[in-house]
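User: Can you model how protoporphyrin IX containing FE sits in this protein?
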Amino acid sequence: MAQYVLEFALFIVLLLAVTLFMPSLTNYLSLRRLPLNGAQHGSYPNRLMAFTSNAEQLYREGYAKFKHTVYRVTTVEGSRVVIPTKYLEELRHLPDSTINNIKSLFQIFEGKYTGLNENAPLINHVVRTDLTRALARLSPRLCEEVDRCIKAELPPCDDWTPVVISPIILRIVAILSGNLFLGPELCRSDEYLHMSINYTVDLFAAVAALKRYPKILRPLAQYFTPELSSIQDHKRRANAFLLPVIRRRRAMTREGMAMPDDMLQWMINKADSFNVKDDAELAYCQLSLSLAAIHTTSITATHIIYDLAAHPAILHDLRHEIHSVLQATNGAMSSQALFQMKLLDSVMRESQRLNPTNMARFTRYVAKPVTLQDGTGLPAGYFIESPHMAICRDPLIYPEPDTFNPHRFLHLRQLSHTHTTPPTAAAAAEHKHQFVSATPDNLSFGYGRHACPGRFFASHELKLILAHLILAYDIRLPADANGVRYRNVVRSAVVVPDVGKAVLLRRVVYE
Ligand code: HEM
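Assistant: Here's the modeled complex, given as structure tokens:
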């Protein structure tokens, strides 16, 4: 009898084990069926080493070998499934419950330990709607701010002066963004600038420290990662700084006063409909906003300025374009004026094409197995991504892909009008080549429903900063750079500009 009970218990345990582990096993086996890029490097640790030491080459090889098929690659985030461009359209229509982006952000930013904000819907909504709509209305306010910043933050440069431009641009981006996030009074305060600049830096340091440990050890490693405490410190400081501001705003509403026109206020107004539990959550939303908005924009600006310094001949044409546009708007850098700066837009897009901040984009977690229309299967439980950098260098999409061609996207926009009818189709075709367009060929801002909602603001802000800079200064590389653009710093799949480098600036003297 005892033997039967034991056998029955064993059977139940086995059944449970099979039920529990079968899906993972099936997913793992489906993953293993996909071709492996970098197989020549051998074992998992060796492939990982190949990725950390030269991810660019791996992605290029993968793109050359498997341009039209799904394949896997070993990354610092584990095995990932790389998907060809042709599937993006189909994938972007799948619901978040199948292809999920929050889970991928949690993995990238170690959200379990860093405590990423979970009220992303409020931030996304306010950025997408209120902020984007406010650009036309608040453009004069931003223009005044950027004018003040350029005068205050940059040296006079009466003669050629070396200027380490990146930290200056970072501060200007933070102030300018802060003008719309918290209002013109608070955007220069030390507390705001500290939070908006350093939270991201400290978060990245904590994430890097955690990722030094294998995944399995991270629950324990969090207690040996002092960088994590600085994140808590930022949250405390954000509360101490912003809670009194939020309380004052609520009192102003009660007293029927005119309310400020900024992101904090738009968020306060919509807090209830997004189930914000308390004011601390609103304060945290501002930190998360800084994470999404400040360094991304300032890195992009730094790349563009390095490209301008390496190709100074284009400054003349850019200045000419900006002057002509401003003549038509009586000097106002309105949204419409910025839209008309099409060469500037082209330069920005070309710089972003050649300097992607990450080699992969459209990173999503596959929550449920997916069978694509052509029968291709994506296993659940793994992350997919698109080989953004390799696409940006595809000669069939971008002829002479390694050359910085400032007119590339301007020409493509012009061609759209020559070759496309009716005018509505031509406008749509032209739109594809703009800086803000998120298409399968340009994943710089991601793609689909979760593509960056802040890209219209980023573009507006970048154009304001660059137009002011270009009108006021000539830009060159120092002689010891020998005319060669500064090389980027690459860490695994992440690419950033070398922020310690100086460019030469000289004030433009108008006759
Ligand atoms: C040049 C500057 C910027 C770049 C290159 C950039 C890039 C990106 C990328 C690649 C994504 C992921 C999209 C995807 O996976 O499909 C993203 C998401 C996001 N970005 Fe940006 N971004 C920039 C500026 C901004 C700004 C200024 C804001 C806010 C004002 C912002 C707010 C967001 C938010 C809220 C998300 C999450 C969207 C979602 O999950 O649905 N970004 N951004």
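A couple of observations from the model: The pocket of protoporphyrin IX containing FE is lined by residues 101, 120, 123-124, 127, 131, 292-293, 296-297, 300, 361-362, 444-448, 450-455, 457-458 (CB under 6 Å). Residues 1-33 form one domain.
User: Helpful, thanks.
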